[in-house]
TrEMBL record:
MF GO annotations: metalloendopeptidase activity; RNA endonuclease activity; zinc ion binding
Matches recorded under Pfam families: YbeY
Family: Belongs to the endoribonuclease YbeY family.
Protein name stated in the entry: Endoribonuclease YbeY
Length: 157
């Protein structure tokens, strides 16, 4: 797996044929890291799945039928996780994206594919950082962060 870096703050291991999105994903990771004032460099593993593979993952881990746009597995939230004491990077976990599902979501919402892709990526990244939207407060916090990260200069937030 290639190790792609922006400076010394962001590392992205991508698996799959969609490397044309790598630069944008790394920029979003760097922007998120700066916005949240993360002290350590971060890394994630990113994989792309087709609809049948995503549907299987969704059924196995979320007990939901059909594909979804993203599923994340946050390493730090695992009860078995023990952070190595001298590790100078924060390993967030694994993110799986289903581009066909993201493309369909964008079409249904009437927005450009890239906008939906960026939204879903930030959403997954925030999950890897421990944010969730299971409560109204969590939803408002996560939605607000996503808006500020994706649209820092347009006054949406």
């Amino acid at each position: 797996m290639p190790n792609n870096t922006i400076g010394s703050r962001v590392y992205l291991d991508m698996v799959g044929p969609h490397t044309e999105h790598a630069a944008c994903f790394k920029k979003i990771m760097a922007d998120t890291s700066r916005f949240l004032k993360l002290k350590e460099p971060i890394t994630i593993s990113l994989q792309f799945l087709n609809r049948p593979a995503m549907a299987r993952l969704n059924a196995a881990y979320r007990k939901k039928q059909g594909p979804t746009d993203t599923i994340t597995f946050a390493l730090e939230q695992s009860p078995e996780f023990i952070r190595p004491p001298k590790l100078d990077i924060r390993i967030l976990g694994d993110m799986y994206l289903c581009l066909p599902q993201i493309r369909e979501n964008a079409r249904k919402a009437g927005i450009p594919f890239d906008e939906e892709l960026h939204y879903v990526f930030v959403h997954g990244l925030l999950h890897l950082l421990g944010y969730d939207h299971e409560t109204d407060k969590g939803y408002q916090q996560m939605t607000g962060l996503m808006e500020k990260i994706l649209f820092p200069h347009d006054g949406r937030s």
